[in-house]
Amino acid sequence: MQRDTIFTGEVSTQLKLSADRFIRLSLSLTSLFQTLITIMSGNALRDLNTLPAPERKNDSSSKGSFTKPCNGNTIENVEEQQRKSLASVQINGGETENAQLKKIPASVQINGGETENVQLKKIPASVQINGGETENVQLKKISASVQINGGETENVQLKEIPASVQINGGETVNVGVEVANSEVEYIESENLSDLEDVDTCLKNLLLGLDSKDWILVVEALNNVRRLSIFHKERMHSILSDLIPLVVKSLKNPRSAVCKTAIMTSTDIFNAYNDELIDSLDPLLVQLLLKSSQDKRFVCEAAVRALEAMTTSLSPTLLLPKLQPYLKNRNPRIRAKASMCFSRSVPRLGAEGIKEYGIDKLIQVAASQLSDQLPESREAARSLLLELQNVYEKSHNLSMAVSEHPEMVSWENFCLSNLSPLSAQAVLRVTTNLTREGLVIGS
């Protein structure tokens, strides 16, 4: 009995030892098996990435979403790559640019003109990117702004322009770039020709001016110019409806429309003169704004329109319209208004100036004499000399017969109508300029 107990204990101990060895062996085998799986997976990925592009594309459907190495190390998810879809585009031998599939910034040189940045907005989905084969593509839309002949022509004609596209080092293909703009020609008034069908033009004039197609608007504006020159009586009946549409074109952000509208305003001023006085305010505001902006060719056209306004409209009607803008917060608008004001006053004549009131006019000129812009100050000096000349000529007889000529002198007139500081500034300008004139004349 004792022997059986001892034998049973030894067997139990051996079984425990065997179980421990089996567990340790199982753990070792599990670890080894996991290591082998990891090694095999890495080899499979390396083999996949060494395959050519078409084979890798065909295998991807059965093997799941495998990843592609970038720069030899980093693995990037395919879905993320497809979402970004970056590509490189080279247009007409220009610099290669990285871009999004839907919008590719590039540089296009058109008709030997200045190179402009554009957006290539559409590429068909069949184009393969990032190492795939490059197919022929048609880049169908480009928005471009090209200045030709120093800014006189803003856009270019509708036509196909050859270009080449190179995508991520793939094969370079020729494409057609369709430039969706039209040429705008600015015709001087003396070069405008008469209309062939005046009745049809008048019938469609207001619709053309209110069109959403800017090319049709420019065409309608030029027809307004022709009617103003050759058939102003025929257009007179629709003038009240036409002026707001011209003002709308003056506000247009497209320079071609804006400049043509400014040239139209010039021809309207020359044609209708004082008949425009009731509709002048919106035109005047826009012309003062355009004459004060940075686009040189628009600014110059607006200045010419303002000059036409001052020579076409009666100064007695124009001066009250200009006077509020002499106090405008914008110094450039004040300067242009001052120049118009000083050009209009001499057209009153000596008698007209006295009727309008020299005392009122000298206060206006004195206020502009201290303006921050030199154009305003120069316009004020010119106006003051004109006022001094008219005043002294009208008071020469009184000074000759008066016992106290100093009481009607120019100096006393300034002191009696202006503050001491303003009077000193006016007398300093007029006295010095008068002396300079006398020295030059002698």
Report what the structure shows.
The protein is mainly alpha-helical and 442 residues long. The chain is built from 18 helices and 8 strands. A two-stranded antiparallel sheet has the order 1-2. A two-stranded antiparallel sheet has the order 3-4. The chain has a two-stranded antiparallel ribbon with strand order 5-6. The longest helix is centred in the first third of the chain and has 48 residues, at 2-49. It is elongated.
Shape: elongated
Mean pLDDT: 73
Describe the largest sheet.
2 strands, antiparallel
Count, helices:
18
Report the end-to-end length measured between terminal Cα atoms: 158 Å
Number of strands: 8
What is the rounded Rg? 42 Å
Element-by-element helix/strand order? HHEEHEEEEEEHHHHHHHHHHHHHHH
Order of neighbouring strands in the sheet with most strands: 1-2
Structural class, by secondary structure, is mainly alpha
What is the domain tally?
3
Top CATH class of the largest domain: Mainly Alpha
CATH T-level fold name of the largest domain: Leucine-rich Repeat Variant
Report low-confidence residues grouped into runs of 5 or more: 53-181, 437-442
* Share of helix, binned: 55-70%
Instruction: Indicate the CATH architecture of the largest domain.
Output: Alpha Horseshoe
- In terms of DSSP E residues, the strand content is 5-15%
CATH superfamily of the largest domain: Leucine-rich Repeat Variant
Subcellular location: Cytoplasm, Cytoskeleton
Pfam family, one: CLASP_N
Keywords: Cytoplasm, Cytoskeleton, Repeat
Organism: Hibiscus sabdariffa (roselle)
